Amino acid sequence: MKKEEQKAKQTAKVKDKGQNDLKMKNQNASKNQKGKSKNVQGVKRKKEEVEEEEEDNSDESEDESDMEEDDSDVSDSGEVTGYTDHNKDWLKPAKSGEADSDNDDSEDDIPDDFSDDELSDDDSDEDDENSDDDDEDLLPVEKKAKKLEKKQARDKKLAEKELMTNITQTEKYTLPSGQEVEQETNQPPDITLVQNRIKEVMGVLADFKEKRTEGRSRQEYIGQLRKDLCTYYSYNDFLMEKLMQIFPLEIHEFLEANEVQRPVTIRTNTLKTRRRDLAQALINRGVNLDPIGKWSKVGLVVYDSQVPLGATPEYLAGHYMLQGGSSFLPVMALAPQENERILDMASAPGGKTTYIAALMKNTGTIFANDANKDRAKAIVGNIHRMGITNTVISNYDGRIYPTIMKGFDRVLLDAPCSGTGVIAKDVEVKINKDEKDIQRCSHLQRELILAAIDSCDAKSSTGAYIVYSTCSILVEENEAVINYALKKRNVKLVPTGLDFGREGFVKFEKHRFHQNMKLTKRFYPHTHNLDGFFVAKLKKFSNKVPVDPDKQGTTENVTEQQETAVVNQSSEDKGQSSEEISQKSPETKTMKKKQTNVKKDKQGKSKWMSTKGNKKQFKPGQFKKFKNTSKGKK
């Protein structure tokens, strides 16, 4: 009905235009008759031609459907706007438009096999109504372009719908059966098959409700994914399970980042040079480098070097230190001040110690300790090369350090760990680490952090801060250790001062930690392009050890633990077992008491240490005799 109404309107417009043209031409003809009375026959011929043209136009208007394009060329009043020359009668641009419109209509009339009822019925009607209103002011080319755009949009919708139907048919993934699993165990694994299965299983887990197969649980998919990741990346099952707990959504990115080495980074020694001068000197030697980032003013990233970085004249002169970017973070969190007394409890090979000395500008005192004598030798070499003069190097077990020395303003503890954050450097961590290793590391770290807190002085005017860091990403070695220290000592968590990094876990699996645990920082290789690292900063507010209600005299227990640690260290050197030490520990205590009593007895009998013996040597009368004899001689 709409199309018939449109056709009727168009035919009426065409007839009106034809009548207007006739009037104009009749007027022109009458003028010509007055001026040219002799050429009457020529005028008649012109009238006949005009009538024939009108008939042709009326016939064409009945067949054509889209005659709105002629509105731009010829106005309703009959005035020609498209052409202004005298040959307007035989110049007819409307015919080309009409022909094109015929082609468009013929294209629209072609049935579409892929057409949708929803798209064709409602949308087409609305589009036609809107187009009739908007297309009146458009040129013919613009109208054609608009039609093409509408057709392309319609085709695109249909293609997307078709694609979605195809995806829904093929996206359900079925897990391998028991026989297929047995065949894979007997044969060497197909890497491409495993890789495709990893992608498919991760896609199912991303939208588990719709993509899972019936009768299969989430645990089965997770177990298959863990098994495939272990075979593809060569991890043991224990470590892969721990990593999947920490990174439920980013496990693939983390594992891929561990397969790539971290960029080589160097730290400028500000005691001897500036970063700008060092960068220029190394660039002249063929080293391609850039600043490590906005968070550090002394770090440089080395992309490529034509010379070995550990043998340049600048390195030998102590202008820089080869050091990982993540090792800057604990020292930046510690924020040492000038003229302070600082302890680096596990300092080998000396990268953090030299950074602390540079920040202190060679003032104050640094005690660099390490339990391994061979590793402590590396500290000596680096300190001499970097030109540091305020450092004392010691070789003690960190657990007994409070018995040797206390009263430090700040303490840095980069604790020994499992190394799960530096897998790119040590690939053996993938296979060697198990649950016993993690428990052993965690127990040692708890003893060390208590010793570090006891070594710090809460009454320090400038510090009383302890920084704890590890190159591990496991919760058992990080948040669990800090939570233990918060319960056992009078310390609290404070902000690290680092602008980037992820917050520590407050809730993890079944664990619930202190609410301020979010002040700690975690760093990952796939997000920060640094080694996996954990940094926590504690402030000690009291030197008193909190007393547990179950145990009385905790201070005595602490001293006993430190004494047993000394005995354990000496017995390990002699090759004794821990059971023999536990049996002999009460005997050693009694022997120590006897030895102290004997020493006291000896001190009482000696001439130089006892005051009683000195008094007996000189009697009061002797002084008088000495005086009398001296006077007589005079």
Q: Summary?
A:
One of its GO terms (cellular component) is nucleolus. With 634 residues, the chain is α/β, with parallel strands linked by helices.
List keywords for this structure.
alpha/beta, Alpha-Beta Plaits, nine-stranded mixed sheet, four-stranded antiparallel sheet, 25 helices
- In terms of structural class, how would the helical and strand content be classed? alpha/beta
Question: Please, what is the CATH homologous superfamily of the largest domain?
Answer: Vaccinia Virus protein VP39
The average pLDDT score comes to 76
Low-confidence stretches: 63-83, 95-122, 552-560, 570-590, 598-619, 621-634
Q: CATH class of the largest domain, please?
A: Alpha Beta
Shape descriptor: elongated
Counted up, domains total: 5
Distinct helical segment count = 25
- At CATH level 3, the topology of the largest domain is Rossmann fold
Number of strands: 15
Work out the helicity level. 40-55%
The main sheet comes to: 9 strands, mixed
Strand content: 5-15%
Radius of gyration: 46 Å
Distance between the termini: 158 Å
CATH architecture of the largest domain: 3-Layer(aba) Sandwich
